[in-house]
Amino acid sequence: MRTSPTAFTSTAVQTPSAEKPAVAAAEGEVRLLLPQDDESSPEVSIVIPALNEERTIEEFVAWCREGLARAGVPGEIIIVSSSTDKTDELALARGARVLVTPQRGLGRAYIDAVPYIRGRYVLVGDADCTYDFREIAPFLDKLRDGYDFVMGSRFRGTIEPKAMPAHHRYFGTPVTNWIFNLVVGSSFTDIHCGMRGLTREALIRIDLKSQGWEYASEMILKSLHLGLRTCEIPINFLRDRNGRVSTVKRRGWLTPWRAGWDSLRVMFTFGADFFLYKPGLLLATLGFVLVALMTPGLVSIGTLNLTSNTQFLAVAVSIIGVSAVYLGILAKVVNDLTGRATTRWISRFPYNRTFIVSALLTVVGLAANVVLLVTFIRDGATLLPSAVRIVHAATTGLLLVMVGFLTFTFTLVLHAVAARLVRSPGPSA
Fold it and tell me: What is the CATH number of the domain that holds 26?
């Protein structure tokens, strides 16, 4: 199907006349401009945000068309633009669709584009000709093999001299990549690579929320939480062309640092359980062991004497640990995009059984403290040295009361959160 250049808004699906693209969309307005040789049934959608890329956009669109031809697939090129130069006009003339949007951030560009994507497979990247879209066939091969999400890796491929600043190549990217893999337990080599491929279904399920650069981390994290089949392939990373000044330089030297910090924020938000669950288990175990050892009374290890103060410290460590574990579980449930983790934790903390266990812990703990209170009153409102064992038992009882309360209230919150996050369990891992 061939159409003349037209435009419509995403909010009202209207078709006002538009012989050539406007400079920029008004606030909140999204308009799609169609080229004369628009592809009617694309299998692949190449979706590219662009901001004032008139120096490279014609060459980039030509690369995309060449890549589609080499791969032997029908495809569409969607330039998501908030440009104020001739980017839109040049892209449209070269045969790309142009989605004119307000300038709202890189992540938001992909969010705006989702309703307009028609292809089964989606390729994303930059319009600056640093990613070689003439070589898209390897991405499509992996997607056709059943992968849901295919990451490009510049570090597994080649990086042209001066294509990446030294502090990016040898510090920023490796450090944040290492942190990411540590937090989520993955083995990616280039989490910041912008050239990626995924199925349209996967993009919809990922449901991006990030408005800026941090979308890149969110996309990978959600792919992992969703259990998508993911892989990496090597790509070639090229230097800026045709006298183009990179977005980083245009926006100032602080831009990459802000982007790195935003990426870390997303990593830590989606990986909050990394800081809570396992560290909490370690602290809780250590605290419980110390409290249990000291329940009968003072403990001597060689010349080291563990007194009541040590047991109080162990109680504090135990409570911090238990609280961290429960918060970690809640983080797992909140970030559970398949429903599997929610189902698992609900089954481990069923309301009736957990209520009974919490009540028993509380009753036993209170009983130990009642014994201490009776002894205290009997001895004339004082604690004699002979009562040291009762004090230690009561301290353990105090821990039981607190754990019982925390467990019961945690279970209430867990079930409340699970009821709010109604999701269908995905296939078994």
Answer: 3.90.550.10
Q: Percent of the chain, pLDDT > 70?
A: 88
Number of folded domains in the chain? 2
Average predicted confidence (pLDDT) for the chain: 87
Together in a domain, 300 and 256:
no
Q: Which residues contact 81 (CB under 8 A, 6 or more apart)?
A: 21, 49, 50, 51, 87, 88, 91, 98, 99, 100, 101
Model confidence at 260, pLDDT cuts 50, 70, 90, reads confident
The verdict on residue 425 lying in a domain is no
Identify the pLDDT of residue 11: 37
Contact 10, 112 (CB under 8 A): yes
User: Closest by alpha carbon to 96, among 141, 180, 34?
Assistant: 34
Same domain, 262 and 290: no
Residues 288, 375 contacting (CB under 8 angstroms)? no
Shared-domain flag, residues 201 and 295: no
Judge whether 1 lies within some domain: no
In terms of Cα–Cα distance, which of 366, 353, 344 is closest to 429? 344
Q: Is the same domain home to 260 and 394?
A: no
Q: Specify whether 129 is located in the same domain as 264.
A: yes
Q: Are residues 223 and 296 in the same domain?
A: no
pLDDT digits (tens, 9 = 90+) for 60-90: 999 999 999 999 999 999 999 999 999 999 9
Residues spanned by the domain of 13: 7-270
17 pLDDT higher than 60? no
For residue 149, the cross-strand partners are 198, 230
Instruction: With respect to residue 336, please indicate whether it lies within any of the assigned structural domains.
Output: yes
